[in-house]
Design a protein that fits this description.
single chain, about 230 residues, alpha/beta, Ribulose 1,5 Bisphosphate Carboxylase/Oxygenase, Rossmann fold, four-stranded antiparallel β-sheet, 8 helices
């Protein structure tokens, strides 16, 4: 049996079974952020993926929260050689052309996000088996295939994040850090829930958002009421 720490046993006493309003849950989550690390405030959501026709729905898109989520990404840009310096100037942590392709091919993936210019996509296709399992394959729909390197890099640096559900309809998103003000966390939460509701396909019947839980990196979770 897993042994719980003294810290966890203390915060576990705050656990409640009933559904709570977001504001109340947020207060409790912040109270249970008792580690020294800058814990993230996270949502765990289960959505209804059962469509009346066409099989199960899969959500994969990007959202930019009003206040970002505080997460820092190491960004690599794969581009033509003449654009490498431009990529570095607009904030890329790593930028390269054939040299970067060679590093990726050898399994050197020391970055969190990969942006690729359209002209380099034909060269990166064969590396799908390396990048795909890591969720690093550039995708135009996710803003990671673009000639506008400044916009792509800036968007990711300022909070553009990818969201996607697993096979059971679960998805997760960080809405900030414990040092965020309550107002910023509330605005991020409301924005994301409104965004998510707009993603509901017409051929899904009934409630789209089935369950919402709020937690922190090292804390306990609280279930939110359906109207939150």
């Amino acid at each position: 049996m897993r042994k719980r720490s003294k810290r966890y046993k203390l915060i576990e006493k705050k656990k409640v079974k009933e559904k709570l309003a977001f504001e109340k849950s947020l207060d409790l989550v912040k109270e249970t952020c008792t580690t020294k690390m800058e814990e993230s405030i996270d949502l765990s959501i289960k959505i209804n993926t059962k469509q009346s026709k066409g099989g199960d729905f899969n959500l994969r898109t990007v959202v930019k929260l009003p206040h970002g989520n505080g997460k820092k990404f190491k960004i690599a840009v794969l581009c033509e050689q003449e654009k490498v310096e431009e990529a570095k100037k607009v904030g890329a942590d790593i930028a390269g052309s054939q040299d970067l392709l060679d590093k990726i091919s050898s399994g050197e993936l020391n970055f969190d996000k990969l942006i690729c210019t359209p002209g380099m996509m034909s060269k990166i296709g064969k590396l799908g088996k390396i990048l795909g399992p890591k969720g690093l394959m550039p995708n135009p729909k996710l803003g990671t295939v673009s000639n506008d390197l400044k916009k792509s890099v800036t968007d990711i640096k300022t909070g553009l994040v990818e969201i996607k559900n697993d096979k059971d309809g679960n998805l997760a998103l960080s809405i900030g850090r414990k040092n965020f003000s309550k107002e910023k966390l509330q605005e991020n939460y409301r924005y994301f829930i409104d965004f998510l509701k707009k993603e509901k396909p017409e051929n899904i019947k009934g409630e789209f958002i089935k369950n919402i839980f709020l937690t922190s990196t090292m804390g306990i979770s609280f279930k939110l009421g359906s109207k939150n």
